[in-house]
Amino acid sequence: MAIKRVEKGWQVDVRPFGAHGKRVRKTFPTQAKAKRFESYVLGQAAVGEPYEPKRRDKRRLKDLIELWYNHHGVSLRDGKRRCSQLNALADMMGNPLASTITPADASLLRQKRLASGITPNTVNHDQAHLRAVFNTLIRLDEWTEGNPFAKVQPLRLHEQELTYLTHDDIKALFTALSASNNPHVDLITRLCLVTGARWSEAQYLRAEMLRNGRVTYTATKNRRNRTIPLPQDLYDALKAHGPRVGRLFPKPAYKAFSAAVLEAQINLPPGQRTHVLRHTFASHFMMNGGDVLTLQKILGHQSITMTMRYAHLSPDHLADAIKYAPHIPMDTKWTTEGKED
């Protein structure tokens, strides 16, 4: 009998290659599942592919991280740093067998990180990086057990405040910068304010990227080059500042900029010390009547969603709210019944 009732359910007991072939036995909770398994085993035998019981995967989480790094992480710009962070997360979980990790384990790791004071945004990035490890290995057919981090939804975050500098802030900032001993900080700051560049893009700019009154940023975050026109006075100052070939600003200027921000008494949210220059360009661009599609190209955003964060600063943004809202004179008074006195 190929299928029989046993104490723990229904047992399949077959020899798909005949009486002298390999015996296959497996127990299922229902007869229907047992029949499907029997059909599968016999079907495999019919095409010459004998059934082999699945072996337990004994690789641990760090083993998968190493495999991910060798196949994919090594090609990332920050691959080594991310690999180090992933290994630290694996240690926090006790480096378990990867096949035993459940969505509940992933959620528990998130709660531990939040309890230790890590910001929700960083926790979401941690979960995304761990999820990417499994997704990458699944695509490469190096992992078949599913992705335990895929079922954990990211934390919902409040929209981040995007602070920008006013004209008075900018004036105070350059007054503070004028006292700096760093020869590059003033021009790097101007370049960021005028083109919306990230600090790193300006700091590592090469002289060859200044041509015909324009600057071209090459080592960008999304690896796409972008070219932006410059005011003539700034272009001339940059051309006269450094060598014709090589880095225009060889000496780091971040500390000098930070000191100037403190000297100018400009209060900024955490993480926006230099990024405020990029926000300032985008904010003033929209307030002065610029359009969001052009801003997207200047900033180099892949998604318009990122650029739309500045749309509310446009003079015409939601202006119809005033035009079509019910008009209520400021001197109008209302009784508790909702009628005018």
Order of helices and strands: EEEHHHHHHHHEEEHHHHHH
- Annotated CATH homologous superfamily of the largest domain: Intergrase catalytic core
Mean pLDDT: 89
What count of domains describes the coordinates? 3
Please state how the strands of the largest beta sheet are arranged side by side: 1-2-3
For the CA atoms, what is the radius of gyration?
31 Å
Shape by Cα distribution? elongated
pLDDT < 50 stretches: none
Class from secondary-structure proportions = mainly alpha
CATH class of the largest domain: Mainly Alpha
- In the CATH hierarchy, the third-tier topology of the largest domain is known as hpI Integrase, Chain A
| DSSP helical segment count | 14
Secondary structure tally: strands? 6
CATH architecture of the largest domain: Orthogonal Bundle
Termini, distance in Å? 93 Å
**For the report, how would you describe the main beta sheet?**
3 strands, antiparallel
State the helical fraction.
Answer: 40-55%
In percent terms, what proportion of residues is strand? 5-15%
